[in-house]
Write a structure and sequence with these properties.
With about 325 residues, this protein is an alpha/beta fold. About 25% of the residues lie in helices and about 25% in strands. The strands form three sheets. Strands 3-2-1-4-5-7-8 form a seven-stranded mixed beta sheet. Strands 10, 11, 12, 13, 14, 15 and 16 form a seven-stranded antiparallel beta sheet that branches. Helix 1 runs parallel beside helix 6 (about 160-185) and helix 5 (about 120-125) runs antiparallel to helix 7. The longest helix is centred in the middle third of the chain and has 25 residues, at about 160-185.
């Protein structure tokens, strides 16, 4: 016996899951994805899920609200046994979740109950986690709180950015998801309740989250820079003595030991010409910089073109981010 499956998803994270379902023994009866969006200059944003569905002759439905009564009527006609949700981006009503006979399951990029919410990958990197994973769980009304059907873990590379990790987890999720779908089909799945008292929340990021807080330790700043790639990108503001403040994107850094008494955010040009910024503990070696409106460049090239000097400062956030770093 095979299942009739509907995928609800929008982002690129869901593409490998969708392809895996298409290649499986199960039947994908439709794709539910967000409405098409138009960017600056009336440029149409690509939706790779929609493109894949159309290429495979899978019906596509793009409702403003998937839980609206008229949307439920469309979905009911597809007669799906199971909904698979991956990076969809809408709150789903109880009525929608109970439309298929096996309910709805979610592909979530963390080890639940840790990092429930919209940005689990970024928050795991930001917090300095060394292990993350994929959780497949039964969706309930409470955010990411449903019974767990499977968890698979994987290390986070010490230099891995959030974007690189997302691409890897998207592929990593496929066999986990397909195993769960087969178990649901066979009636052998064993849902396990989450340890709700251990839950943490990974809120949606904003552009402001990219600003570096130089009062953090160098290790924490390095994690923050990796977490902000590819969006919203880590940045700092150079308070130029004889010019307007300049916003600097910071794509790559590493950490170095430093016992100086300089204030956090102070520029330290080393004897070998390296660009260092003092942190709350130790210092950050700037490997690349991207001035506003310019291309990214090695720090050495930046120093040749911009008169930043030792003792000048890069500004910190006015408030520390709403996220607690690990203390172990």
């Amino acid at each position: 016996m095979t299942l009739r499956v509907t995928l609800l998803g929008t982002g690129s994270f869901a593409v490998p899951t969708f392809q895996g379902l298409l290649d499986s023994a199960h039947t994908v009866v439709g794709l539910v994805t967000q409405p098409d969006k138009t960017g600056a200059g009336h440029h149409q944003h690509r939706n790779p899920l929609k493109e894949l569905a159309l290429a495979c002759n899978v019906p596509v439905f793009q409702p403003e609200k998937a839980s609206a009564p008229e949307s439920l009527e469309v979905l009911a006609r597809w007669q799906a046994d199971l909904y698979v949700v991956a990076a969809y981006g809408q709150i789903l009503s109880s009525k929608l979740l109970h439309t298929p006979r096996l309910g709805a399951i979610n592909v979530h990029a963390s080890i639940l109950p840790k990092y429930r919410g919209a940005s689990p990958i970024q928050h795991a990197v930001w917090h300095g986690e060394t292990v993350t994973g994929i959780t497949i769980f039964q969706i309930v009304r409470e955010l990411d709180a449903g019974p767990v059907l499977a968890i698979e873990r994987t290390p986070i590379g010490p230099e891995e950015t959030a974007g690189e990790l997302e691409e890897r987890l998207a592929q990593f999720a496929v066999p986990v998801l397909l195993r769960v779908v087969d178990e649901l089909d066979a009636g052998t799945a064993h849902p396990q309740e989450q340890e709700h008292t251990q839950s943490t929340y990974a809120r949606r990021l904003s552009k402001a989250d990219g600003q570096i807080d130089w009062r953090c330790t160098a290790a924490e700043i390095a994690c923050h820079v990796r977490a902000m790639q590819p969006w919203p990108k880590a940045f700092s503001i150079w308070q130029r003595p004889n010019g307007s403040p300049l916003r600097l994107l910071v794509p790559r850094v590493s950490t170095v030991s430093d016992s100086s008494n300089a204030a956090p955010g102070t520029v330290l040009i080393s004897s070998s010409g390296q660009l260092l910024i003092k942190a709350g503990q130790d210092a950050v070696l700037i490997e690349q910089l991207q001035p506003d409106g310019k291309r990214a460049m090695p720090a050495a090239e930046f120093l040749r073109g911009y008169p930043i000097q030792s003792g000048q400062t890069l500004s910190s956030r006015d408030n520390r981010p709403e996220t607690a770093f690990k203390t172990d």
